[in-house]
Write a structure and sequence with these properties.
mainly beta; 7-stranded antiparallel beta sheet; 2 domains; about 10% helix
């Protein structure tokens, strides 16, 4: 009877804490399948209008690496977790939208976390199409802020770096305030500093599609029809789909998932709470880590209806009020390409 009253009191206290602060944080030490584990959990009540969930890139550009703690602190955020998978140059894999702007539109066939301007969050498999519509012609975009194949259209902005990095014959349209300001035909990279966008078409004998002074409209459409998406980032694969454990034994980005490993996970509950969970691993006698199946079960226990992998292993990091709270498996925080930060605004 006394124990039940204590548990009830703790439960009530947690509810009060969530109401006072729309972000709750907890650390748990537990045993799972005879293994010691330590997890760190952020629960975000997205019904609170003051919560801001935002993508951050290393040095605020594509390519490159920085610590999750540095990126979190530079953006004056209370919390941060490592995020998307990335290549050896620090280019993130998959769809990325930041502050309502499409950064990259390449889909990698995994679920994407979508956050609307109204604070609604979903995890869905989506693709995106883009086009540039002029006064007479409309072209379909092959991609944004990526390498440009021959005979394809790619849209660039300053988040890609200083230039387009294209060293082949191309025609480039410099766009500012939705108007073509200049047309450049060259086989050298074009600067991204003096315009909002550069629309590049890699082609040997270019025929101008748009003219200087022409008004153009850049438009993107998600396959699910969702509008006003403020932030989006693609994950490494499903763990929980519609309340069911759907963890696979192998994922393209995580590799085999049956061995215990450090994990960074994201999920959403039916009442629009976002759960970020970090589980330490590869630390004998303290925290061994979990398999994909175990990770899914843990997210189900948090009430998640949908959940997915973020980058894990030695990248797994959670930052709370400026400090790394977990124990990275390499003994120190790893530099990564992307993280997700949480800020509170009045």
């Amino acid at each position: 009877m006394i124990i039940s009253r204590i548990l009830k009191a703790i439960s009530m206290l947690n509810v009060i804490m969530v109401i006072i602060n729309p972000i709750s944080y907890k650390v748990e030490h537990f045993t799972l399948n005879n293994k010691p584990e330590t997890s760190y959990t952020l629960s975000l009540n997205m019904g609170n209008k003051g919560i801001r969930l935002e993508n951050v890139l290393s040095y605020d550009v594509l390519y490159g690496f920085d610590k999750t703690s540095v990126m979190t602190n530079n953006h004056k955020a209370l919390f941060g977790v490592n995020g998307m998978f990335y290549d050896s140059l620090g280019m993130t894999y998959g769809l990325l939208i930041m502050d309502h702007k499409v950064v990259t539109m390449d889909s990698i066939g995994t679920p994407t976390v979508l956050v609307t301007g109204e604070g609604q969050v979903s995890i869905e498999e989506v693709t995106i199409k883009g086009q540039v519509q002029g006064e007479k012609k409309t072209i379909a975009l092959f991609g944004t802020n990526r390498s440009a194949p021959s005979n394809e259209w790619v849209l660039y902005d300053a988040i890609y770096g200083a230039t387009t990095r294209i060293r082949r014959p191309s025609i480039n349209y410099l766009i500012k305030d939705e108007v073509v300001q200049e047309v450049i035909v060259t086989d050298a990279p074009v600067s991204l500093k003096n315009s909002d966008y550069v629309l590049a078409h890699v082609v040997k004998d270019p025929i101008p599609t748009f003219t200087v002074g022409e008004k153009v409209n850049i438009d993107f459409e998600l396959s699910n029809g969702l509008k006003n998406v403020a932030e989006a980032f693609q994950t490494g694969g499903w763990l929980v789909d519609d309340g069911k454990n759907v963890a696979k034994d192998y994922e393209n980005f995580t590799g085999p998932t049956t061995a215990p490993s450090p994990r960074t996970l994201v999920g959403i509950t039916k009442d629009n709470k976002v759960i970020f969970k970090v589980i330490d691993g590869r630390i004998p006698d303290i925290s061994v880590g979990v398999s994909g199946y175990e990770a899914a079960q843990i997210m189900l226990s948090e009430g998640c209806r949908y959940a997915a992998y973020l980058d894990g292993g030695a990248s797994t990091t959670m930052v709370v009020r400026g400090e790394v709270v977990n124990m990275p498996s390499n003994g120190e925080e790893r530099d990564v390409a992307h993280c997700v930060v949480i800020r509170l605004e009045e």
